[in-house]
Amino acid sequence: MLLAAALSAPRLVAIAPADSSESVSSKAPLRITFSRPMDRASVESGLAIDPRPAGTLRWDGTTLVFEPSEAWPVGGHVSVRLAGARSAQGLPLLGGAAWSFEIGVPRVAYLWPADGPADIYVRALDDSDPVRLTTTAGVLDFQVTADGAALVYSAQTTGGDSELRRRDLSSGADEVLYACPAGSICRQATLSPDGQWLAFEQEDHGSDTASAAEDSVAVRLYSVGSNATAFAVAPADHSTTRPSWSPANALAYYDQDLRAYAFLNHPGSPEQSPDSFVPNALGDRGVWSPDGESFVFPELVFVAASPTDGSEGPPVFYSHLYRLNVGSGAILDLSGEEGYLVEDAGAAYSPDGLWLTFSRKYLDRPRWTLGRQIWRMRSDGLDPEPLTDEPTLNHSALAWSPDGQYLVYMLFDQMDMTRPAEIWWRSADGSGSGQLAVGGYAPAWTP
Fold first, then answer.
1. Backbone angles phi, psi at 84, to 5 degrees
2. What is the rounded CA–CA span in Å between residue 80 and residue 52?
3. How buried is residue 316: exposed, middle or buried, by Cβ count under 10 Å (0-12/13-18/19+)?
4. What is the DSSP string of 222-289?
5. Is 344 in contact with 321 (CB distance < 8 Å)?
C-alpha cells in the first residue's frame, strides 16, 4: 500500500524559469507542471512568490501558470516556495518544492554591422561591451518572443538557404524551428504568444523559363514541433507580408492584392478567409496594444488641394496614425483632424498601454524638417508632445523597455548620408540618454 501510494503521489515534472536561472525576462510567466491532476485550491493557496508582482493564476491542464501583469523587479532575486499541495485524489506532493531565479537587467538586442553579413548583439545601458549572440552566415532579421525569453531569427546558411531559429536568452540554447525550402528565403518570423504557431514570410523565386511563375512572397504558418508542412494563410495568388500576433494569439498580416490588413482570430488552417480586414494603401507594419484590443497603423492620404496658409510647394500627401478597435471595427485618427499636414509613422505602445511614441515630421513649409522627431501621446491621441528637437536627424525604430522606463531608437544624420546609423537609448522621462552602437540597426529590448 505504501508503494502504491508513493507511485500515485503527484510530482513536479517541470518548472520555468528553472532553479538558479539568470537573466530571466522581466515579463516571463511562472509555470509549474505536475505529473497528475491537482487539487487546484491547495496548490494556489500553497504557492508563495517573493516578491510577487500583480498578476493572474490560470491552469493549462496539469500546469499552473502565473502571468505577471506588471514587470518582475529588474535585476532582482525571486524566490518561489510550494507547500501543502495535493493531487485531485488527496495525495500530498512529495517533499514540497523551493527554487529561485534572477531577473535580468534591461539590454538592447540589435543587428550589426549594416554594411555586411550581420549577427545579433546585445548590450546593457552601461559601459559594458556588447555581447555577440549568434555566429552565422548572416542574420536577416529577428524578433523577441512575447514573454521576452527568447529570440526568433532568420539566418542564412553557408549553402545560401535560410532557416528560422530560436535562441533561449537564459540558457543560450539555439535550435532550428523551420528549415526554409531550398531556393526560397524565409524571414520576418514571429512566434505566437502560446508558442504553438510560427508565422513568417516565404519568398519564392521563379526560374528563368518563360512559363515560370514570378517571384512571390506569402505569409505562412508552421505548427511548432510538428512534421507538418507550412501553409499559406491566403490564396496562392495573393501576396502577403508583415505577420504580427496579438497577445490573444490573433494574427494580422498585410494582403498586397486586397490592399488591406487582414485579421484571423483563430488561425490554423490553409487559406483561411479573414475574420475582418481594413483597407490600407501604405502597407507598413502595424502594432498591437498590450491588451490585444487595438491595432495602430499608418495610412497615406493624398492632398487634393493646396493648403490654406499660402505656403509654397504643398505636399501631395500626408500620413496619419489610426487606431482600430478590432472587436467593433471603429477607427480613430490619432494624428489630429483630417488634413493635418504631418508624416507620422513607427508607433510603439508603452508596456502599460497608456502611451504611444511615434516619429513625426511636419510637412507644411514653416515647420518642415529633414528628419522625423520622437513624439509621445496618450493612446487615445490626446496630449501629444515632442521628445526631441534635432531637425537634421531622423529618429525611427522606437521601442519601449519592458519596465517602461526607457526608449531605444535609431538615429540617422540627414545632412551626411555617408555617416552610419546609430542606436541610442533615452529615459522615458528625458533624464538621460546614451549611444549604444554605430552601424547597427533593428533594436529591440530584452529580456
1. 75, 10
2. 9
3. exposed
4. EETTS-PPPEESS-TT--EEEEEE-TTS-EEEEETTTTEEEEESS--STTPPPSEEEE-SS----EE-
5. yes
According to DSSP, the β-strands at 287-288 and 276-279 are: unpaired
Q: Give the H/E segment covering residue 15.
A: strand 12-16
Close Cβ partners of 154 (under 8 Å, ≥ 6 residues apart): 139, 140, 141, 142, 162, 163, 164, 165, 185, 186, 187, 188, 189, 200
What's the whole-model pTM score? 0.85
What φ, ψ does residue 4 adopt, rounded to 5°?
A: -65, -40
Residue bearing cell 509549474: 32
Residue with cell 526631441: 388
**Per the structure block, which three cell numbers stand in for 392?**
537634421
* 46 touches 84 (CB < 8 A): yes
Q: Is 323 helix (H, G, I), strand (E, B) or coil?
A: strand
Determine how many CB atoms are found less than 10 A away from the CB of residue 383.
Answer: 9
The per-residue pLDDT for range 381-427, each reduced to its tens digit, is 999 999 999 999 999 999 999 889 999 999 999 999 899 999 999 99
Q: pLDDT tens-digit profile of 227-284?
A: 889 999 999 999 999 999 999 999 999 999 999 999 999 999 999 999 999 999 999 9
Q: Give the pairing of strands 240-245 and 231-232.
A: unpaired
Read out DSSP for 27-41?
Answer: TPPEEEEESS-B-HH
Is residue 357 within 8 A of residue 405, CB to CB? The reply is no
Cβ partners under 8 Å of residue 421, min gap 6: 114, 410, 411, 412, 439, 440, 441
